[in-house]
Design goal:
The complex is a heterotrimer of chains A (348), B (352) and C (384).
Chain A lengths: L3 H24 L7 H8 L7 H36 L11 H13 L5 H10 L3 H26 L3 H24 L3 H11 L8 H20 L1 H7 L3 H6 L4 H23 L5 H13 L4 H23 L10 H19 L8
Helix pairs in contact in A: 1-3, 1-14, 2-3, 3-9, 3-12, 3-13, 3-14, 4-6, 4-7, 4-8, 4-12, 6-7, 6-12, 9-12, 13-14, 13-15, 14-15
Chain B lengths: L5 E14 L2 E14 L3 E5 L6 H8 L7 E6 L2 E2 L1 H4 L1 H4 L3 E4 L11 H6 L14 H14 L14 H14 L4 E5 L7 H18 L2 E5 L3 H7 L2 E5 L6 E4 L1 H6 L2 H6 L5 E3 L4 E3 L7 E6 L3 H11 L3 E3 L5 E4 L4 E4 L4 E4 L2 H20 L10
Parallel strand pairs in B: 3-8, 3-9, 6-7, 7-8, 13-14, 13-15
Antiparallel strand pairs in B: 1-2, 1-4, 4-5, 9-10, 11-12, 15-16, 16-17
Helix pairs in contact in B: 5-6
Chain C lengths: L1 H14 L12 H4 L15 E6 L2 E10 L2 E11 L12 E5 L4 E3 L2 H10 L5 E4 L8 H8 L4 E2 L8 H7 L3 E5 L10 H5 L4 E4 L7 H5 L2 H8 L2 H23 L7 E3 L6 E5 L4 H8 L14 E5 H10 L2 E3 L7 H7 L7 H5 L3 E2 L15 H4 L1 H12 L13 E2 L2
Parallel strand pairs in C: 3-4, 5-6, 5-8, 6-7, 8-9, 10-13
Antiparallel strand pairs in C: 1-2, 2-3, 11-12, 14-15
Helix pairs in contact in C: 1-9, 3-8, 8-9, 9-15
The chains are: A mainly alpha (348), B alpha/beta (352), C alpha/beta (384).
């Protein structure tokens, strides 16, 4: 076991770093706001301009919170995928969960009849965000059920991986068909959605997303022991007392809760699910999920907050898609960490 | 031997797979039992179904027919992995990928059925893990990562993990594969000792006939065609010819006397051999390699003892210091003997 | 002086052909296509018409795949030969008697010029507000030929239209219409969307006029539109207030705001409104993040072009943060979908394009209530 003291210092350092990045994410943005004002608002001291209040309280803080939620949820679901399939390249989208969410969203935004659909939405009085989000959740849940049903017939996890990828591909193909028959305007909207965005989640939506993600995280954490056993493969896991089918259902459910809801609210955000578990394993040098799950939460949060921070550098008026930043920032980071630790045979 | 407790009983068990909806029996129907404190080796030619049988007995796959009773639980394998986990622990040939795991963590995983919610180990758990590591002699490796171990060391760790699971039954599938000879011997010794000291019932499948015959309390011999299983003490199976029958193939012969397979078929060249062990044992081997059939009387004859080899032929008597020299002389002799045998009972060379 | 201008504006407003009055131009002489009248382009930058004996040369600036391209067309009068010396030009025999329109704007232009009856095909039968065209659809005289990539080439060719009016599309493959032109169907790319001034855009009706020899009529009508427009601009300049305007709605943290030199920005300026991004460069949209827009959005008095939202309730459902916007608190929320029919077709894109003076009047009514008497909105609707 790692030197206990060493470990504790790592946690403390990581938490401190995280809080710093969180603060920076709130303090720095396209509109220049003096640090003093930021502090005063956070501490609920009076006397600040209402515009500044609005920007900090209604724009930056919800966005930062969304980043925290997305960071935790995506990285932990990625971790579980990598454990279930014993594959370092696995990520939440592998089972088709993100494709399912996209399917739901595309059905609303593009689905056959375009203008008629939007007109219908308008007449029904349900506008924008809620409907799209709901559709995303339903899509993710639908695919999840499909995958669970299929998994009953499948004995081998490798087969499950292939089936998941196939389901994902088929789903994306359906979306492509819709895109093909849609107007340029709608395609542009859908395309914007696929770039991912942390900014659109506010008020009640944020609470709901937070609650769902928390539920998923708790479910995952409680499964730590089972996940550890799965590391040895299905046969050993079964011999140690794990009911394989039940384990799969639990993992699929928690992954769908986490990745599906985040995708439905924020659009597909890639890369975090693959990279952060690798980073966590490298930095904490362990395979125990009891430690890795919290570690992934912290690292995932840090990564996304950092990317968000980069995307909203002062004076930057344009909206940069979060997806692009996570890939550009995250990929070199992962390579640097893994090479630095000379830990190339994580999965030896 | 006192009456040992029966840990597992299988009645009319048929092990196999469903291929295209139809059940295909690979092994069985057979009835076997495992007692506490005994080490049982499952032997058989390749493809006889040893792995399938083991997977069925250990609950990894369902039986096609018949029943398995494990310490009072009937058919438990299909319904409750967690109950079964307290009764049977396994060592498999599955590769363990996560080389980031420390040896201690790996062994500690064996406590899965007993440890706390998040896998936390209680005092009792820690004690058993320490004991398991001591029994397998791997205490020194505790902090090393699995990826840095050699095959033999890794196998010991997996054994320790199974030990830590603290079950009355242990099943091992080809535990000696990929190990070098000293490690193989060590492992078999260890298993034998474990069976005796912990009173566990140990079942292992192996290709190590030599070692198995020496170390097993009971041997299960699985035959290919028909999937019949013969069981008994290894010596019984050898002496009553079952062994020979099972492994008999073109040009392969199990020698009861030596307990090993003869690589070389017998021939018409006969030679008599007398002497003391171990010289006589090894001389016989050398002669068989040269294609001789060894008898106990007649000429030519060889006497082997600690001092040297004495070769007596009808015409001469020679002494050699090494087998190499002996064989060299024999080959010269054989050639001339063959020349002789072509002329009806004459001596000397044939005249053209 | 104010009052005088005010009355002039009013009289022009009511004398111009409004979309609600469905009379075709009555002067018989003007309705005869004449090959003699000419027209000049004053506001539009995207096209030019050169008059020659027996033919006209039209050059259209089109943006295709992010490159500007000049398309040349030879409008050859009936009975005259196509002139030599224009190797790149496409020949279009005029006056055009039958046409297929790909967009609502084309229908609007045809209506303005009085040739809506000549439309024999549409890209999509749903997006039509013109009563003339709707009647023809009911009578089955108009076929649906599909839009963009889905255009039914064979159907179009078999219809032998006098002209196909295509939409300019920057991402489109320029050779898309080659199949049609090779088969002898004349195709002209109408790139009116590239204009960044309201009058410039409306002036494209003159292209339609040139194609149908109706310059005389269109000159009159357009001049009156332009005059009214200009007088409205003068009126707005006199207004005492200069309220600020924000446009559109954000989507997931991205807010597309018209750039300083864009069509919408000019409209706001002409209506006497203030626009925070009036100095920004470009004729398209700025892709801004919510935070950059927020300071302005919180203080701007008016919010226009909100999009497909029915009510204030729905707007709030989209994002509760809108409640803090001054325009929301004051209820100054407007969208230009008052003239949308049951099929979801919005007349703003049809007759609205050729009636910029009416749209401007709407905007002035919104931004400066009371400046024009009887603030009835034609195209704009206030969100309730």
């Amino acid at each position: 076991m790692m030197n206990k003291k060493h470990m504790t210092w790592r946690w403390i350092a990581l938490c401190t770093l995280l809080m710093l990045i969180f603060f920076l994410d709130i303090a720095i943005g396209p509109v220049r706001i003096p640090l003093k004002s930021v502090l005063r608002i956070i501490l609920s001291l009076p006397g600040e301009d209402s515009t500044v209040h609005y920007i900090i309280g209604q724009i930056r803080i919800p966005k930062a919170c969304t980043a925290v939620i997305a960071g935790c949820g995506l990285s932990v679901s990625g971790l579980q995928m990598q454990t279930l399939f014993r594959n370092p390249l696995a990520e939440p989208s592998v089972l088709g969960v993100t494709a399912g969410a996209s399917l739901g969203v595309a059905a609303i935004m593009l689905g056959g009849g375009s203008i008629v659909t939007l007109y219908t939405i308008r007449e029904l009085g349900i506008s924008g965000s809620w409907l799209i989000t709901l559709a995303g959740c339903i899509g993710a849940a639908g695919i999840m059920l499909l995958v669970i049903l299929i998994s009953r017939k499948v004995r081998d996890n490798m087969m499950m991986l292939i089936i998941g990828v196939m389901v994902s591909t088929a789903t994306l193909a359906i979306i492509s068909v819709w895109q093909y028959f849609s107007d340029a305007e709608l395609i542009k909207d859908y395309l914007l959605w696929t770039f991912g965005s942390l900014g659109g989640v506010t008020g009640t939506q944020l609470y709901i997303l937070g609650a769902v993600t928390l539920a998923g995280l708790i479910l995952s954490f409680l499964s730590s022991k089972m996940l550890d056993a799965l590391l040895l493969g299905e046969n050993y896991a079964r011999s140690m007392g794990v009911t394989i089918h039940r384990a799969r259902v639990i993992i699929i459910c928690s992954t769908s809760l986490l990745a599906g809801s985040i995708t439905a609210f924020c659009g597909p955000i890639g890369f975090v699910g693959i990279a952060v578990p690798q980073m966590a394993r490298s930095i904490f040098s362990t395979s125990s999920h009891r430690i890795l799950i919290p570690a992934c939460c912290l690292l995932g949060t840090g990564l996304i907050l950092l990317c968000d921070l980069i995307g909203q550098w002062p004076g930057n008026q344009t909206a940069l898609p979060i997806n692009i930043i996570t890939a550009l920032v995250g990929a070199p980071m992962v390579v640097w960490i893994i090479l630095g630790k000379n830990n190339l045979s994580i999965y030896g | 031997m006192s009456d040992a407790q029966t840990l597992l009983t299988a009645h009319q068990l048929a092990a196999g797979y469903h291929v295209g909806g139809r059940p295909v029996t690979i092994a069985g129907p057979l009835s076997v039992s495992i007692q506490a404190g005994r080490m049982i080796c499952l032997l058989g030619p390749n493809g006889a179904g040893k792995s399938t049988l083991m997977r069925t007995l250990s609950g990894l796959q369902p039986a096609l027919e018949g029943s398995i009773d494990i310490l009072g639980d009937r058919g438990a394998s299909l319904h409750s992995p967690s109950r079964l986990a307290r009764k049977i622990s396994l060592v498999l040939t599955d590769p363990v990928r996560h080389s980031n795991l420390t040896v201690y963590s790996m062994v500690a995983l064996g406590r899965y059925p007993y440890s706390g919610w998040l896998g936390t180990l209680h005092e009792e758990d820690k004690r058993i893990v320490a004991w398991a590591m001591a029994m397998t002699g791997i205490e020194a490796y505790a902090e090393r990562k699995m990826g840095t171990l050699s095959d033999g060391e890794r196998q010991k760790v997996m054994l320790a993990r199974a030990l830590a699971q603290d079950t009355p039954l242990m099943m091992l599938d080809e535990p000696t594969a990929h190990l070098d000879l000293p490690s193989r011997i060590q492992l078999m010794q260890l298993l034998h000792k474990l069976a005796r000291t912990t009173q566990k019932g140990i079942l292992l499948s192996t290709h190590e006939l030599d070692l198995a015959l020496q170390v097993a309390d009971e041997v299960w011999l699985l035959q290919k065609a028909g999937g019949r299983l013969e069981k008994g003490a290894p010596e019984d199976l050898v002496l009553n010819g079952t062994f020979e029958a099972v492994f008999d193939k073109e040009g392969i012969h199990f020698d009861k006397n030596t307990g090993s397979f003869n690589i070389h078929a017998g021939s018409s060249k006969k030679i008599a051999l007398t002497g003391d062990d171990p010289a006589i044992f090894w001389t016989r081997r050398a002669l068989q390699r040269e294609g001789f059939e060894v008898t106990s009387e007649g000429l030519p004859s060889i006497h082997a003892d600690g001092t040297g080899w004495t070769l007596k032929t009808t015409s001469a008597r020679q002494v050699f210091a090494t087998i190499t020299a002996l064989l060299k002389a024999l080959s010269a002799l054989t050639i001339s003997n063959e020349d002789k045998s072509e002329t009806p009972g004459g001596e000397g060379k044939t005249t053209s | 002086m104010n009052k005088l201008l005010y009355y002039i504006a009013l009289s022009f407003l009511f004398s111009c052909q409004s979309p609600t009055a469905k009379k075709e131009p009555s002067a018989a002489a003007d309705s005869v296509d004449t090959a003699r009248a000419q027209t000049t382009i004053r506001y539009a930058h995207g096209f030019t018409i050169d008059y020659h004996d027996g033919f006209k040369v039209v050059r259209i600036l089109d943006r295709n795949n992010n490159k500007f391209d000049t398309l040349e067309y030879l409008l050859v009068q009936k009975g005259h030969p196509a002139p030599p010396g224009y190797p790149r030009a496409q020949v279009i025999p005029i006056p055009v008697q039958t046409m297929i329109a790909m967009s609502s704007t084309h229908v609007g232009m045809a209506d303005f010029v009085g040739v809506a009856d000549r439309i024999m095909g549409l890209g999509n039968l749903r997006y039509v507000n013109s009563p003339v065209v709707q009647e023809n659809i009911r009578k089955g005289r108009i076929k649906e030929v599909g839009l963009d990539e889905n255009i039914n080439n064979e159907l179009v060719i078999s219809m032998h239209p006098g002209l196909l009016l295509a939409m300019s599309n920057p991402e489109a493959n320029g050779a898309r219409y080659k199949v049609l032109t090779d088969a002898g169907t004349p195709v002209i790319v109408v790139a009116e969307w590239l204009e960044n001034t309201p009058l410039g855009k409306a002036e494209w009706v003159k292209l339609m006029a040139a194609l149908t020899n109706r310059e005389a009529l269109v000159n009159r009508k357009f001049d009156s539109v332009a005059k009214t427009y200009d007088s409205l601009v003068q009126l707005a300049r006199q207004a005492k207030t200069h309220p600020h305007v924000i446009i559109g709605t954000p989507f997931k943290g991205s807010w597309f705001m018209p750039a300083g030199d864009s069509y919408m920005a000019h409209f706001i300026e002409d209506a006497g409104g203030g626009y925070h991004w009036a100095d920004s460069k470009g004729t398209g949209s700025l892709s801004l993040n919510f935070e950059s827009v927020a300071p302005e959005a919180l203080t701007a008095e008016y919010w226009l072009n909100i999009g497909l939202i029915n009510s204030k309730q729905d707007l709030l459902a989209k994002d509760p943060r809108f409640a803090s916007f001054r325009s929301f608190k004051m209820g100054n929320l407007y969208n230009f979908d008052k003239r949308s029919n049951d099929l979801g077709s919005n007349d703003y894109w049809e007759s609205g394009v050729v009636n910029p003076h009416i749209v401007l009047a709407d905007m002035i009514s919104i931004l400066h209530p009371g400046l024009l008497s009887g603030d009835t909105l034609v195209y704009y609707r206030q969100l309730q």
